[in-house]
């Protein structure tokens, strides 16, 4: 497998020729090593033989403790880094949201969204209206002219979501996007994200270390083990939306997954 | 994993606090309006409102202190003159300098002196901008160029540009192009280095975010790198102007020729030749005033605007 060469994502342009894309993201036997710190030439295996499909319109959460390589996997899918082995295919270039809002402070909220539109090639005349529509979608009607520092943490992440949606990708990658928010705001944004996901039919690959968040949002929870990251177990979450953190069914599944996660973590204490 | 567990606990804790009185049956799925209302409430609670200070307060806190400082210096100066610490030909009094300025004003030469130098300085600075900016971008973004000329560029900053006056006179003669050459050699490294420092300080997250949005190559430079580096770039411009102005004064003092017209540097040198201490003082004051005025009228407002727009201006 180590001899396999990494082939990169299909670019948006040539998806027309290959109409039968049955996935939003396809990760096949992907491994990733980084140079190990402190050794010369030594390699540290971060991801080991990951195979994972995200179906069109599916909401998948990647769950794992620190060091499981979940952010690394997301970067690979985003095309910001290349796998050491295996291949990754996506249906067009994915949009990516970070834990930090990553909005550009020299632009207003609206102009941040417009920049994504502009880089996508949307004509100047349509940008403003489209940006307003997207801000509307995340319920930030009056925020077009606001500077980033004038917005609260939750509002910034919603602008970041609007900017990601402006890319018109079929796949949205989210790297712990709500981890830095307070509990109340996070809970509201869970509802908001669920609503937008259902309205737009996007595929979402959502990375988190919060079990309840994973269960609350996803159709499928993928648990990664740590060092190296492997797929330990998967759960299909069949609960109807809208869900609440307090729902008994959410709580029960969370307990089960937490037990599994703790088991994975305990393994590391033994050596 | 304690962190996660805590997170969950805190969350449910707050939840039960909110829904506590509305009884055991936890409010089931909120409808869309409810969520919108909740969100609007959160937004209103969390938003930051930045108030700007009033004109009166600005005058009181920003203008008054320097006026007092200048007044004190003038008083001290006059006291030293009255105490006759130095003979008159060495220490001109404030009123002598004022008289010199009035005379030049009524002869119509005062503004000529200033304009000769300022127009040279600004034109030279604009040329330095046009050369230093692409140079800085290249040094910051192209590894080979940085390795090749980065250290030289930083080193050039510490070379007093007055050192370039003699070779510039020999190569180009006593004319305006020699002045501009000296200005460029003084200011281009500052402009370029400022831009390099600004680019190096862009958070890597912005570059990653830009790349996921599809900004690469020149589009990345224009939409992400240049605006991201603007604060550092502006600092470089400010220093570049200071270096332009200094180099120009050095060039004007050293290289005087009737063809060149009288700028502030020549005014100073003429004052020395005429043994007119009042004229020397006047020239020095004017050089200082132009430096302050350009900073106050151009660079400070620009810098404040950029920093305020990004929420980086801390009001003290």
What tags apply to this protein structure?
heterodimer, A: 271 residues, alpha/beta, Rossmann fold, six-stranded mixed β-sheet, three-stranded antiparallel β-sheet, disordered N terminus, B: 316 residues, mainly alpha, MetI-like fold, 2 domains, 12 helices, ABC_transporter-like_CS (chain A), transport (chain A)
Count every beta strand of chain A, where a strand is a DSSP E run of 2 or more residues.
Answer: 9
Poorly predicted tracts of residues of chain A: 1-18
CATH architecture descriptor of the domain at 12-87 and 96-103 and 170-269 in chain A: 3-Layer(aba) Sandwich
Neighbour order of strands in the largest sheet of chain A: 5-6-7-3-8-9
Order of helices and strands of chain A: EEEHEEHHHEHEHEEH
Fold-level CATH name of the domain at 12-87 and 96-103 and 170-269 in chain A: Rossmann fold
Instruction: Output the structural class of chain B.
Output: mainly alpha
Examine the coordinates and then state which fold CATH places here, giving the name of the CATH topology of the largest domain in chain B: MetI-like fold
Strand content of chain A: 15-25%
**Averaging pLDDT over every residue of chain A, what do you get?**
83
Number of strands of chain B: 0
What's the level 1 CATH class of the largest domain in chain B? Mainly Alpha
> Structural class of the secondary elements of chain A?
alpha/beta
Walk me through the structure.
The complex is a heterodimer of chains A (271) and B (316). Chain A is globular and about 60 Å long. Chain A has a six-stranded mixed β-sheet, with helices on both faces. In chain A, helix 3 (124-137) crosses helix 4 (153-165) and helix 6 crosses helix 7. Chain A has a domain at 12-87 and 96-103 and 170-269: P-loop containing nucleotide triphosphate hydrolases (Rossmann fold), CATH 3.40.50.300. Chain A is built from seven helices and nine strands. Chain A is an alpha/beta fold and 271 residues long. Chain A has helices spanning 70-78, 109-120, 124-137, 153-165, 183-200, 211-217, 248-269; strands spanning 25-35, 43-54, 59-63, 85-90, 95-97, 171-175, 203-208, 220-224, 231-236. Chain B folds into two domains: 54-85; 93-309, MetI-like (MetI-like fold). Chain B is 78% helix and 0% strand. By secondary structure, chain B is an all-alpha fold. Chain B contains twelve helices and no strands. In chain B, helix 8 runs antiparallel to helix 10 and helix 10 (217-254) packs antiparallel against helix 12 (277-309). Chains A and B meet through helix 2, helix 4, helix 5 and helix 7 of A and helix 1, helix 2, helix 9 and helix 10 of B. Chain A: It comes from Streptomyces poonensis. Chain A: Residues 25-253 form the ABC transporter domain. Chain A: Keywords: ATP-binding, Nucleotide-binding, Transport. Chain A: This is ABC transporter ATP-binding protein. Chain A: One of its GO terms (molecular function) is ATP binding.
């Amino acid at each position: 497998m180590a001899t396999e060469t990494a082939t990169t994502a299909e670019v948006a342009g040539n998806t027309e020729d290959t109409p039968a894309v049955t996935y939003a993201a396809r990760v096949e036997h992907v491994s990733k090593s980084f140079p190990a710190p402190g050794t010369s030439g030594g390699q540290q295996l971060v991801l080991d033989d990951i195979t994972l499909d995200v179906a069109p319109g599916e909401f998948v959460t990647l769950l794992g403790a620190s060091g499981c390589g979940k952010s690394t996997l997301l970067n690979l899918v985003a095309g910001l880094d290349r796998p050491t082995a295996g291949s990754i295919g996506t249906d067009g270039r994915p949009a990516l949201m970070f834990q930090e809002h990553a909005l550009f402070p020299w632009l207003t909220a609206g102009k941040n969204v417009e920049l994504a539109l502009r880089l996508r090639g949307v004509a100047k005349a349509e940008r403003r209206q489209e940006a307003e529509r997207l801000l509307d979608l995340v319920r930030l009607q009056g925020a077009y002219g606001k500077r980033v520092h004038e917005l609260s943490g939750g509002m910034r992440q919603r602008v970041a979501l609007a900017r990601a949606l402006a890319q018109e990708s079929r796949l949205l990658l989210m790297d712990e996007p709500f981890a830095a928010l307070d509990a109340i705001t996070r809970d509201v944004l869970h509802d908001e994200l669920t609503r937008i996901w259902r309205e737009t039919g996007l595929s979402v690959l959502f990375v988190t270390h919060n079990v309840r968040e994973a269960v609350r949002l996803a159709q499928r929870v993928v648990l990664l083990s740590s060092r190296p990251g492997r797929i330990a177990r998967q759960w299909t979450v069949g609960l109807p939306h809208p869900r609440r953190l307090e729902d008994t069914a959410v709580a029960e599944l969370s307990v089960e997954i937490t037990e599994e996660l703790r088991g994975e973590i305990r393994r590391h204490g033994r050596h | 994993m304690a962190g996660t567990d805590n997170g969950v606990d805190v969350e449910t804790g707050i939840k039960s606090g909110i829904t506590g009185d509305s009884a055991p049956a936890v409010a089931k799925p909120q409808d869309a309006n409810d969520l919108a209302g909740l969100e609007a409430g959160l937004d209103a609670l969390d938003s930051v409102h930045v108030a700007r200070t009033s004109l009166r307060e600005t005058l009181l806190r920003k203008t008054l202190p320097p006026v007092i400082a200048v007044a004190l210096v003038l008083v001290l100066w006059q006291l030293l003159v009255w105490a006759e610490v130095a003979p008159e030909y060495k220490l001109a009094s404030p009123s002598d300098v004022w008289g010199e300025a009035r005379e030049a004003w009524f002869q119509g030469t005062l503004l000529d002196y200033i304009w000769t130098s300022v127009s040279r300085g600004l034109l030279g600075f604009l040329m330095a901008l046009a050369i230093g900016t692409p140079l800085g971008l290249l040094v910051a973004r192209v590894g080979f160029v940085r390795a090749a000329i980065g250290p030289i560029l930083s080193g050039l900053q510490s070379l007093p540009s007055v050192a370039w006056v003699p070779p510039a006179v020999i190569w180009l003669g006593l004319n305006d192009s020699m002045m501009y050459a000296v200005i460029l050699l003084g200011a281009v490294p500052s402009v370029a280095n400022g831009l390099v420092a600004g680019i190096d300080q862009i958070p890597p997250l912005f570059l990653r975010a830009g790349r996921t949005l599809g900004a690469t190559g020149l589009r990345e430079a224009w939409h992400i790198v240049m605006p991201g580096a603007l604060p550092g770039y502006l600092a470089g411009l400010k220093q570049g102007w200071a270096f332009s102005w200094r180099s120009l004064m050095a060039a004007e003092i050293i290289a005087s020729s009737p063809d060149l017209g009288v700028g502030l540097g020549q005014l100073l040198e003429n004052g020395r030749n005429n043994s007119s201490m009042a004229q020397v003082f006047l020239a020095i004051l004017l050089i200082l005033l132009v430096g302050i005025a350009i900073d106050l009228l151009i660079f400070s407002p620009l810098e404040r605007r950029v920093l305020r727009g990004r929420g980086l201006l801390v009001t003290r």
